[in-house]
Amino acid sequence: MKKVLHISKYYYPFIGGVEEVAADITAALKGGDYEQKIICFNEDATTDGVTTHRGQTVHDNIDGVEVIRCGTAVKVSSQALSLTYAKELKKVMEEFRPDIVVFHYPNPFVSQMLLKYKRMDFKLVVYWHLDITKQKILSKFFYTQNIELLKRADKIVATSPNYIKGSPFLSRFEDKCIVIPNCINNERLKVTPEIEELSAKIKKKYKDKIICFGLGRHIPYKGFIKLVEASRYLDDRFAILIGGKGELTGMLMKEAQGDSKVHFLGKISDNELIACLLACDIFCFPSVTKNEAFGIALAEGMYFGKPAVTFTISGSGVNYVNVKDVTGLECPNSDSRAYAKALEKLADDPELRQKLGGAGRERVLGNFTYDIFCDNLRGMIEAL
Predict the structure, then answer these.
(1) What is the CA radius of gyration of the chain?
(2) Cβ partners under 8 Å of residue 349, min gap 6
(3) Which architecture does CATH list for 2-183+369-383?
(4) Per-residue pLDDT reduced to its tens digit, 90-117
């Protein structure tokens, strides 16, 4: 029985991109010859009746796996700090004695703690989700530490070949890198009669409109301001539906004032998400920086056979998921006028929409499903 320790920034019921991948990895190894533990920071969150509290250090059990949550005392540049983390990590490393450690990066403060155990006998998998780009000072401060971490790593996982080539860190350790693309949750995206009915209502509400749908947190790198700007260049046959909320929601609404084409849906349920994906004609994914390392929402839109419109982001996996002129259209980064022209091109050509959308669905089914992810992940772990 091999022992696997997962080190994630947070974990369920907190839901984010990294946390979803960590949960997928844990699930992929369940039922095999593995005993697993997870250590993370705690955060205020509630999902499906499970609630956690930021300041508490607790040992939970999620789906049969022990989750060690270390109470968060403060955050520095979006990085959690805990008074109990070092003690809990020491205990789990010395008593559990993992054979394999799966470390989700970025998590720079914990990187420093983990490196104290670098001479222990375990295989280290560094799951590199993204480079630190926003916090310029922090990224320089941790540069040497990152190199040391990657030198110690036995395997480095990237979610796309684009990110390996575009990262100043991963490109130095290309021989250790392996690509394991993120995956969609097929079960979560099942269509029910209730969802079909909801989708029909959306189509009826925006009858005779080209429905363009985008979803995500309203934060700078998601680029929704560019979608709002693009709408200004479009005529009234379009309906721009934007789901999600975030720190920029108010600003986005203010920018869209007077533009009747733009509709903010707020935070939507899974059923509403699937209904929108069924109802829309075009999936909009306007992210603008490498912080968008892959794009699960993008893959979900493509799974429903919708042509995608993205920006060119150097070094990002977005342009690996959506292949230019094969599964969707791609525009010069942050060029809202070009984005509008791409939407117009798709609106004017139903056959092109069908062709690109069909190719997009095939790309997802062939590369980004949960079963494929599990096979890739297990293969990498077993090879260690």
Answers:
(1) 21
(2) none
(3) 3-Layer(aba) Sandwich (3.40)
(4) 999 999 999 999 999 998 889 999 999 9
